[in-house]
Amino acid sequence: EEIVVRGAALKRDLARVVLRGVPNKMGVAAQVFARIAKHNIMVDDIIQNVYREHNIANIGFTTNASEAMEAQAVCDDLARELGIESVELDEKVAKVSVVGIGMKTHSGVAAKMFNALAEAKVNIENISTSEIVISCIVRLDDAEKALQTIHDVFELDK
Amino acid sequence: EEIVVRGAALKRDLARVVLRGVPNKMGVAAQVFARIAKHNIMVDDIIQNVYREHNIANIGFTTNASEAMEAQAVCDDLARELGIESVELDEKVAKVSVVGIGMKTHSGVAAKMFNALAEAKVNIENISTSEIVISCIVRLDDAEKALQTIHDVFELDK
Ligand SMILES: C[C@@H](O)[C@H](N)C(=O)O
Ligand SMILES: C[C@@H](O)[C@H](N)C(=O)O
Fold first, then answer.
1. Is the pLDDT of residue B144 over 60?
2. Percentage, residues of chain B above pLDDT 90
3. What pLDDT score does B146 carry?
4. Distance CA A135, CA A148 (A)
């Protein structure tokens, strides 16, 4: 299957909120995002990993840096109401993405992207993928460097 | 912004591998997926959450259930070589997705999807999103129920 990387994208000035120790019970994620939607907080990406052994999950999401404080406040209330262990906020992150077609078997493209970031001395904090996009959350300070190295490695026009 | 949900999709017979306690050092994700690519293991989605306080990350990825044992073996080797705490394998999961356009502000659509799953008594194990897709990993046993409730709630044609 021909993998064609078409372009790269960068979203600067994002904040990441992580809800740690979320009870792994039906309906909890629905309550969290219904509340966030009620407050009209922009959600860029959502990443949840489950920890079945301890019956908890970690839910991370990105929002505009300008909405970080409000997002944290909403999540602090949710944490008290739903028994979520803690809420972490990181206000200085960015998302760099590779966009392509036929990326169903991600590992080849992913490995190339992750390697490009490693060579450029960029640490990868979060990863999320879909069939046509691979995204990495990095420090805001690394945003330009991250985009540049991806353009170089995948030989994309500016 | 008009949010238009266009359809739903289901991928059955997936397995999930989770690498826990991955050193949060540059180049580690590149090594993991370069090795997986070398073994030609199909990777459907990748989800990584970072735990900055402890300087570790958890990396989860889904693959075909038929490749589960090989994926686990490859990851067990990586765990020894890279100092990854543990490798968890879950062989009976499925991915249900909502596909739309203009989903940039996910929280409204996400809340509706998560609520539909909660009403149908489906537990959400993983979540990953991009601008046009929201995906949830659920137990394989819940796959049909999950797809049905999403069709109903978003009024999608079969
Ligand atoms: C955990 C892993 O993603 C690491 N932070 C890296 O950049 O490779
Ligand atoms: C953690 C949260 O996603 C929970 N498992 C739910 O289904 O809502």
1. yes
2. 86
3. 98
4. 15
Burial code (b: 16+ CB inside 10 Å, e: under 16) for B116-142 equals bbbebebbbbbbbbbbbbbbbbbebeb
Task: Measure the CA dihedral A131/A133/A139/A145, to 10°.
Answer: 140
Tokens describing residue B129? 């999103």
Q: Which two tokens stand for residue A35?
A: 């509340």
All residues at 6 or more sequence positions from B144 whose CB lies less than 8 Å from its CB, including other chains:
none
Q: What is the identity of the amino acid at B40?
A: N
One DSSP character per residue, A22-36 reads EE--TTHHHHHHHHH
Element housing A70 (H / E): helix A68-82
Q: Apex CA B8: angle with CA A32 and CA A4, to 5°? A: 100
Coil vs helix vs strand at A65: helix
User: What is the tens place of the pLDDT at every residue in B80-109?
Assistant: 999 999 999 999 999 999 998 766 556 789
| Chain A, window 92-131: residues with a beta carbon less than 8 angstroms from a chain B beta carbon | 104-108, 110-111, 114-115, 117-118, 121-131
Give the best residue of A127, A132, A133, A153 to mutate against chain B (max B CB count within 10 A): A127
**pLDDT tens digits, one per residue of B117-135:** 999 999 999 999 988 899 9
